[in-house]
Write a structure and sequence with these properties.
The chain is an alpha/beta fold and 147 residues long. It has seven helices and four strands; from the N terminus they run E-H-H-E-H-H-E-H-H-E-H.
Length: 147
């Protein structure tokens, strides 16, 4: 179940907040993924330490497509029923989409996606510093694995 939209403009206070990228979701679901143990540990710590996990509806879309293609419907159901309910889903509005698209077009990175640029804008707006992610673009932008 996806949570209702929240305005992505105010920093999240009083709770450790961590962004979750497609690479984090996928690695938890695929035991053969090299990032599996680290991602699984991140989700376990989040639950144990009561972190607020944050993602976007673009990441949900990207993850769903990737998991369905590579791992099948049972894994999609695990994503939707087990992992996604742990997250606050920020919904992308027209302004955020346009801003992220402009950033992508400026940077012109071959492997930098619109979803990545939306994620970085949400991370900036919410003042997050950590992500369950294995995408090099996160570390390049100063976003670290949870400490």
């Amino acid at each position: 179940m996806v949570s209702p939209p929240h305005p992505p403009t105010e920093p999240l206070a009083f709770v450790k907040s961590v962004f979750v990228d497609t690479s984090g979701f996928y690695a938890v679901l695929d035991a053969d993924d090299p990032f599996h143990t680290i991602a699984r540990t991140g989700f376990e710590r989040a639950e144990r330490e009561k972190w607020r996990l944050v993602t976007t509806n673009y990441v949900v879309h990207e993850t769903w497509a990737l998991v369905q293609h590579r791992l099948g419907w049972n894994a999609v159901e695990d994503f939707l029923d087990v992992l996604l309910p742990l997250c606050r889903v920020e919904f992308v509005d027209e302004a955020l989409h346009s801003q992220a698209a402009q950033r992508c077009r400026q940077l012109r990175g071959r492997r930098l996606s619109l979803t990545d640029c939306v994620s970085f804008e949400i991370i900036r707006r919410l003042q997050l510093t950590e992500a369950i992610a294995q995408d090099e673009h996160f570390s390049e932008n100063g976003i670290l694995l949870p400490q």
